[in-house]
Amino acid sequence: MQQTKQFPEGFLWGGAIAANQVEGAWNEGGKGLSVADVDTYKPKASNKDYNAHAAINLETIKKAMEDPTDTWYPKRRGIDFYHRYKEDLALFAELGFKTLRVSIAWSRLFPSGEEQEANPEGIKFYHNLFIEMKRLNIEPIVTLSHYEMPLALSVKYNGWVDRRVIDYFVRFANVCFDEFGQYVKYWLTFNEIDSIHRHPFKTAGVIEEKSDSGEEIQDIYQALHHQFIASALVTKAAHEKISNVMVGCMLTKLMTYPLTCDPQDVELTLKKNLENNFYADVQVKGEYPKMIERHLENEGIHIDMASDDRRILKENTVDFITFSYYMSMAESGDPKAERTPGNTVLGVKNPYLPETEWGWQIDPQGLKISLIDLYDRYQLPLMIVENGMGAIDTISSDGKIHDDYRIDYFQAHFKQMKAAIDEGVDLIGYTSWAPIDLVSAGTSQMSKRYGFIYVDADDEGNGSYDRMKKDSFEWYQNIIQTNGAALFDE
Questions:
Q1: Residue 423 annotated among the catalytic residues of the structure
Q2: Which partner from 16, 265, 318, 387 sits 20 to 30 angstroms from 250, CA to CA?
Q3: What pTM did the predictor assign?
Q4: SS3 290
Q5: Domain assignments of the chain as residue spans, ordered by start
């Protein structure tokens, strides 16, 4: 079969953002506090402090709740997408976006999470957002839970540790399907559901000091199970309510290689990759992998399940698989092996790979390997919904931002995507993280920039917040216009 330079017809090119990192307007429109609204800026965090955002306790939460400002809480202000979404969507349309991944802030619809009726102002905002996207022919991909659950559910119930949160989430999701199903075909349930082990508060509202001593890991697995059940239940609801709907799971793809061919390195790597696949396994295959169940048993972890939980999981599996891919890492049994940060993980440094200013190793071929691995394992359509590099951008003397490093990064990754497609992988879309500068998930910085579009704001929130195109804007625009063929221009 002769290969073409173009990606498949109808390929969904676009970008991805999250409500908690762009919307701002944290105290407008009846919105309640979310877990993201108490996430502080860490000015002293090193560029390579991979997990600076994980620390949270009741004292810091109380202090944040009493603070009426956004001074130390950048996600409260975001990039003012709440007021400027039309301007940003116009830029995305100019880029040629076929799709845009967004999330719906749960606490904008249900401020405490426990209300019986949704907040009308929140409903109106998202109606307006989706209407504008439809006008611009941008297909929405909507994540229901992207690190922004109502803070009140975290404080009252210890988040997803309490099974009652399932019902609150299902209520929220049903409102989303009823109100926005007319605009949205593609839905994702939980963003990087596997991240609960790396930052349980951000992912699931779990405050570890609320757990009994020695039960912290037990509670995290219990919260994860409740999210699995919630994902299955809302998948069922979406299939019942929306015609031609596609519901997907979302995984942090953490591709790991053995540092050497030492069998110990190979075994450790195998187990790390199997553990990474576990979270998709449950949502795609509808059951816990047997080796994961044995591992939990060996660790003394018991997951409380309702009598019909296994049936719910089995009967309500997802339609496609989405994942984030930023970097790969290595594994070794050598305790002295040098380690380096990645997407909220710490892995052994691969000597064959360069790295970003934040220490994340750059591995385009790892994306191709990940695509082949996932498609071989699941045989379902795939979508890359996060991929990009954080960098410190500077405005040159000519008033422009020359980000050739970003262009080089994407060009290398896109070529590997096309190679995977040519080998038979069913890849249906790609959304970069992020098409516009936003508040970073980890250290809540603005200076760690991802976008093709520059936002004039610094880490302390100073600036005009005006938007400006970087050199990469025109480059990505050309990639989309040619459906990838421009990658291979001489």
A1: no
A2: 265
A3: 0.95
A4: helix
A5: 12-488
